[in-house]
Amino acid sequence: MELQNTKNPLSNQDYKLRVLALNKAPVLRDFCLTCHSGCDPLHLETWILTAIARDVQQLQLDICLDGFIKDEFYRGELFVLPQSFFSCKTVVILELWNGIAVDPPSSFEFPSLKDLRLVHVFFPNGDCVQRLLSGCPVLQDLKLCSDSRSGLIRFDIRCVDFGSIYPSRFKNLVRLNFTLQKSNWHVLQALLRVSPNLEVLVIDKLYSTTNQLCSMEPFDGPGYVSSQLTTFRFNQYKGSKYEVEFVKYILKEARVLKTATISVCDTALKESVIEEVSTFPRSSTTCLLTVEVQH
């Protein structure tokens, strides 16, 4: 079931609520709620909790109460997920977008959640991130896309120690889509250390110039790369110092890697990157290394 509100149709909210209430299916497999202005938070909460009461399995929420997104990022009033949201036992795929504030209770669990996608959502503080991921014991697929320019925390988790807080929570993680920005190289490093069964790693770079980068710890010795890693992709590669070191490390340590794809922004850069990465040592003798232009 999909509910959308992008034009401020306030008169339709009661109608949509009645439609959802009249749906008598005991199990609501998919529920997608998009609101980009004009929604009453109480209505949103009712729709979401109704879906949870119907044992929803795939839940996607994209909420911008003020409807104003600047430079692809929402800056307006936040919709705070109700505490009862975290009692859902059936959700397998959870996707949260934009103006949603995530503040989990101190103790909760999503026992069925395997796929978690967080795109530009807000956390009141770093503890919220810890609590959220600690409540996902069977997580397999994690996508993180953030923006640290806001005064609030948009998955800016510089104070989280993954290894000491919940390393076992990532033992089932097989796919990681990570949005790389200037301040979170160390977060990527920490996630790789506690994901021993990772099979697919996709990096999407958010920053544009090398002088924006903050420091990161060097990749020194084994331990950062899963022995199960078979697929690696780096989008928007520009050959900065850290990018070169990271790609070189992945190729050297990923012993069963089957495909490695480096995506660049133009043809001229492609030629120089091909020449450079072709000299990097590779542990996997069967790895197919590709450099492509991303359009």
From TrEMBL:
Domain annotation FBD: ranges: 223-292
SUPFAM superfamilies, per the entry: RNI-like
SMART domains the record matches: FBD (SM00579)
One Pfam family recorded for the sequence: FBD
Gene3D superfamilies according to UniProt: Ribonuclease Inhibitor (3.80.10.10)
Bilayer-crossing regions: none
InterPro entries xrefs: FBD, FBL13/AtMIF1-like, LRR_dom_sf, LRR_FXL15/At3g58940/PEG3-like
The organism's place on the tree of life at top rank: Eukaryota
Protein name: F-box/fbd/lrr-repeat protein
Protein source organism: Quercus suber (Cork oak)
